[in-house]
Specification:
Largest sheet: 2 strands, antiparallel
Helix content: over 70%
Structural class: mainly alpha
CATH superfamily of the domain at 102-237: Tetracycline Repressor, domain 2
Number of helices: 10
Distance between the termini: 122 Å
Strand order of the largest sheet: 1-2
Length: about 240
Protein backbone atom coordinates (compact mmCIF):
# COMPACT_ATOMS: atom_id res chain seq x y z
CA UNK A 1 0.00 0.00 0.00
CA UNK A 2 1.29 3.40 -0.92
CA UNK A 3 1.86 5.75 1.99
CA UNK A 4 -0.31 8.81 2.02
CA UNK A 5 1.20 12.30 2.18
CA UNK A 6 -0.49 15.61 2.57
CA UNK A 7 0.04 18.22 -0.14
CA UNK A 8 1.98 20.24 2.43
CA UNK A 9 4.43 17.36 3.03
CA UNK A 10 4.90 16.86 -0.69
CA UNK A 11 5.67 20.55 -1.23
CA UNK A 12 8.22 20.43 1.60
CA UNK A 13 9.93 17.36 0.15
CA UNK A 14 10.17 18.93 -3.32
CA UNK A 15 11.56 22.18 -1.89
CA UNK A 16 14.12 20.27 0.20
CA UNK A 17 15.26 18.26 -2.84
CA UNK A 18 15.71 21.43 -4.91
CA UNK A 19 17.74 22.98 -2.12
CA UNK A 20 20.02 19.92 -1.99
CA UNK A 21 20.58 20.03 -5.75
CA UNK A 22 21.38 23.74 -5.69
CA UNK A 23 23.79 23.24 -2.81
CA UNK A 24 25.62 20.54 -4.74
CA UNK A 25 25.92 22.69 -7.85
CA UNK A 26 26.99 25.85 -6.09
CA UNK A 27 30.72 26.22 -5.20
CA UNK A 28 31.67 26.51 -1.55
CA UNK A 29 31.37 29.96 -0.06
CA UNK A 30 34.33 31.55 1.72
CA UNK A 31 34.81 34.65 3.81
CA UNK A 32 37.14 37.07 1.96
CA UNK A 33 40.01 36.62 4.44
CA UNK A 34 39.72 32.85 4.42
CA UNK A 35 39.43 32.78 0.63
CA UNK A 36 42.52 34.98 0.23
CA UNK A 37 44.50 32.73 2.56
CA UNK A 38 43.37 29.67 0.62
CA UNK A 39 44.28 31.27 -2.72
CA UNK A 40 47.75 32.21 -1.49
CA UNK A 41 48.28 28.72 -0.10
CA UNK A 42 47.20 27.14 -3.39
CA UNK A 43 49.48 29.44 -5.41
CA UNK A 44 52.33 28.60 -3.07
CA UNK A 45 51.86 24.88 -3.61
CA UNK A 46 51.65 25.42 -7.36
CA UNK A 47 54.83 27.52 -7.54
CA UNK A 48 56.80 24.93 -5.62
CA UNK A 49 56.55 22.62 -8.62
CA UNK A 50 55.84 24.63 -11.77
CA UNK A 51 55.85 28.15 -13.23
CA UNK A 52 52.90 30.49 -13.15
CA UNK A 53 52.48 30.34 -16.95
CA UNK A 54 50.68 27.02 -16.58
CA UNK A 55 48.27 28.44 -13.99
CA UNK A 56 44.96 29.92 -15.09
CA UNK A 57 42.16 31.61 -13.19
CA UNK A 58 39.86 28.70 -13.97
CA UNK A 59 42.09 25.90 -12.68
CA UNK A 60 43.07 28.00 -9.65
CA UNK A 61 39.38 28.47 -8.82
CA UNK A 62 38.86 24.73 -9.19
CA UNK A 63 41.70 23.99 -6.77
CA UNK A 64 40.41 26.53 -4.26
CA UNK A 65 36.82 25.34 -4.56
CA UNK A 66 35.06 28.43 -5.85
CA UNK A 67 33.87 29.96 -9.10
CA UNK A 68 36.29 32.02 -11.24
CA UNK A 69 33.90 34.95 -10.84
CA UNK A 70 34.41 34.78 -7.08
CA UNK A 71 38.15 35.33 -7.52
CA UNK A 72 37.51 38.19 -9.93
CA UNK A 73 35.18 39.78 -7.41
CA UNK A 74 37.83 39.52 -4.69
CA UNK A 75 40.89 40.64 -6.70
CA UNK A 76 39.52 42.51 -9.70
CA UNK A 77 41.71 40.61 -12.16
CA UNK A 78 44.05 37.64 -12.39
CA UNK A 79 46.93 40.09 -12.67
CA UNK A 80 46.04 41.68 -9.34
CA UNK A 81 45.85 38.24 -7.77
CA UNK A 82 49.40 37.54 -8.95
CA UNK A 83 50.55 40.86 -7.50
CA UNK A 84 49.41 39.62 -4.09
CA UNK A 85 51.57 36.55 -4.67
CA UNK A 86 54.47 38.88 -5.50
CA UNK A 87 53.90 40.75 -2.23
CA UNK A 88 54.21 37.47 -0.36
CA UNK A 89 57.40 36.71 -2.31
CA UNK A 90 58.91 40.10 -1.45
CA UNK A 91 58.07 39.42 2.18
CA UNK A 92 59.91 36.10 2.00
CA UNK A 93 62.87 37.73 0.30
CA UNK A 94 63.02 40.34 3.05
CA UNK A 95 63.08 37.58 5.65
CA UNK A 96 65.79 35.74 3.71
CA UNK A 97 68.16 38.71 3.79
CA UNK A 98 67.15 40.05 7.21
CA UNK A 99 69.71 37.95 9.04
CA UNK A 100 72.64 39.03 6.88
CA UNK A 101 74.12 41.41 9.44
CA UNK A 102 77.90 41.52 9.78
CA UNK A 103 80.11 44.32 11.17
CA UNK A 104 81.88 44.78 7.85
CA UNK A 105 79.74 46.59 5.23
CA UNK A 106 81.61 44.92 2.36
CA UNK A 107 80.99 41.46 3.81
CA UNK A 108 77.38 42.42 4.49
CA UNK A 109 76.87 43.30 0.83
CA UNK A 110 78.38 39.97 -0.20
CA UNK A 111 76.09 38.19 2.25
CA UNK A 112 73.06 40.00 0.81
CA UNK A 113 74.05 39.00 -2.73
CA UNK A 114 74.56 35.36 -1.70
CA UNK A 115 71.22 35.36 0.14
CA UNK A 116 69.52 36.64 -3.01
CA UNK A 117 71.12 33.89 -5.08
CA UNK A 118 70.11 31.31 -2.48
CA UNK A 119 66.53 32.56 -2.48
CA UNK A 120 66.29 32.27 -6.27
CA UNK A 121 67.62 28.71 -6.09
CA UNK A 122 65.25 27.63 -3.33
CA UNK A 123 62.12 29.23 -4.79
CA UNK A 124 62.80 29.63 -8.52
CA UNK A 125 59.21 29.90 -9.75
CA UNK A 126 58.24 32.46 -7.11
CA UNK A 127 61.38 34.44 -7.86
CA UNK A 128 60.70 34.25 -11.59
CA UNK A 129 57.16 35.57 -11.12
CA UNK A 130 58.54 38.81 -9.66
CA UNK A 131 59.96 39.68 -13.09
CA UNK A 132 57.56 37.97 -15.48
CA UNK A 133 54.67 40.38 -14.85
CA UNK A 134 54.73 44.18 -14.48
CA UNK A 135 54.36 45.40 -10.93
CA UNK A 136 51.19 47.21 -9.90
CA UNK A 137 51.06 50.77 -11.22
CA UNK A 138 48.63 52.40 -8.81
CA UNK A 139 46.58 51.96 -5.67
CA UNK A 140 47.31 50.04 -2.48
CA UNK A 141 49.19 47.23 -4.22
CA UNK A 142 51.57 49.72 -5.82
CA UNK A 143 52.22 51.44 -2.48
CA UNK A 144 52.81 48.19 -0.62
CA UNK A 145 55.17 46.88 -3.30
CA UNK A 146 57.12 50.13 -3.41
CA UNK A 147 57.55 50.16 0.37
CA UNK A 148 58.92 46.62 0.34
CA UNK A 149 61.22 47.17 -2.65
CA UNK A 150 62.56 50.42 -1.21
CA UNK A 151 63.20 48.62 2.07
CA UNK A 152 65.38 46.10 0.26
CA UNK A 153 67.31 48.82 -1.56
CA UNK A 154 67.80 50.76 1.68
CA UNK A 155 69.78 47.86 3.11
CA UNK A 156 72.17 48.08 0.16
CA UNK A 157 72.32 51.89 0.37
CA UNK A 158 73.07 51.75 4.09
CA UNK A 159 75.99 49.38 3.58
CA UNK A 160 77.40 51.56 0.78
CA UNK A 161 77.21 54.72 2.89
CA UNK A 162 78.83 52.90 5.79
CA UNK A 163 81.61 51.70 3.48
CA UNK A 164 82.13 55.15 1.94
CA UNK A 165 80.66 57.79 4.30
CA UNK A 166 81.35 60.63 1.87
CA UNK A 167 78.91 59.24 -0.69
CA UNK A 168 75.90 61.54 -1.00
CA UNK A 169 72.43 60.09 -0.53
CA UNK A 170 71.38 60.55 -4.16
CA UNK A 171 74.55 58.87 -5.40
CA UNK A 172 74.08 56.05 -2.88
CA UNK A 173 70.59 55.43 -4.24
CA UNK A 174 71.88 55.23 -7.79
CA UNK A 175 74.83 53.05 -6.85
CA UNK A 176 72.61 50.68 -4.88
CA UNK A 177 70.43 50.12 -7.92
CA UNK A 178 73.41 49.78 -10.26
CA UNK A 179 75.04 47.29 -7.94
CA UNK A 180 71.89 45.27 -7.35
CA UNK A 181 71.04 45.29 -11.03
CA UNK A 182 74.43 43.70 -11.66
CA UNK A 183 73.83 41.16 -8.89
CA UNK A 184 70.44 40.32 -10.37
CA UNK A 185 71.99 39.89 -13.82
CA UNK A 186 74.46 37.32 -12.54
CA UNK A 187 71.72 35.52 -10.63
CA UNK A 188 69.48 35.48 -13.71
CA UNK A 189 72.28 34.08 -15.87
CA UNK A 190 73.10 31.53 -13.19
CA UNK A 191 69.48 30.39 -12.96
CA UNK A 192 69.36 30.00 -16.75
CA UNK A 193 72.79 28.32 -16.83
CA UNK A 194 74.13 30.93 -19.23
CA UNK A 195 77.39 31.80 -17.50
CA UNK A 196 79.47 29.39 -19.53
CA UNK A 197 82.13 26.93 -18.41
CA UNK A 198 85.67 27.11 -17.10
CA UNK A 199 87.79 24.01 -17.70
CA UNK A 200 84.64 22.05 -18.36
CA UNK A 201 82.89 23.11 -15.16
CA UNK A 202 80.12 25.70 -14.65
CA UNK A 203 81.33 28.95 -13.12
CA UNK A 204 80.29 29.41 -9.50
CA UNK A 205 77.76 32.21 -9.12
CA UNK A 206 78.85 32.97 -5.55
CA UNK A 207 82.45 33.49 -6.70
CA UNK A 208 81.31 35.80 -9.49
CA UNK A 209 79.15 37.77 -7.06
CA UNK A 210 82.10 38.22 -4.71
CA UNK A 211 84.30 39.34 -7.61
CA UNK A 212 81.65 41.81 -8.78
CA UNK A 213 81.32 43.37 -5.35
CA UNK A 214 85.07 43.49 -4.76
CA UNK A 215 85.53 45.33 -8.06
CA UNK A 216 82.72 47.83 -7.47
CA UNK A 217 83.71 48.52 -3.88
CA UNK A 218 87.36 48.99 -4.86
CA UNK A 219 86.28 51.61 -7.37
CA UNK A 220 84.10 53.30 -4.77
CA UNK A 221 87.00 53.37 -2.33
CA UNK A 222 89.29 55.02 -4.88
CA UNK A 223 86.66 57.67 -5.61
CA UNK A 224 86.09 58.29 -1.92
CA UNK A 225 89.82 58.66 -1.22
CA UNK A 226 90.24 61.00 -4.17
CA UNK A 227 87.40 63.16 -2.86
CA UNK A 228 89.03 63.29 0.58
CA UNK A 229 92.37 64.30 -0.96
CA UNK A 230 90.69 67.02 -2.98
CA UNK A 231 88.98 68.42 0.09
CA UNK A 232 92.26 68.39 2.00
CA UNK A 233 93.95 70.31 -0.82
CA UNK A 234 91.20 72.92 -0.84
CA UNK A 235 91.38 73.28 2.91
CA UNK A 236 95.15 73.85 2.75
CA UNK A 237 94.88 76.77 0.35
Amino acid sequence: MLSEHTPRQIRYAVTHLKHQRNSMARPRQHAPEALHARVMETCDEWLKEQPVHALSLRNLAREVGCAPSTLLKLYGSFGNLLQHVNLATLDRLRDAIAGQETPSPSERLKALARAYWGFAQRDPYRWQLLFDFPLAQEGELDQRQNVMIEGLFERVEGALVEYAPRVESVEAKRMARTLWGSVHGLVQLGMNERLGLWQGQPLEVTELLDQLLDTMLAGLKVRSEAACAGDATEAGK
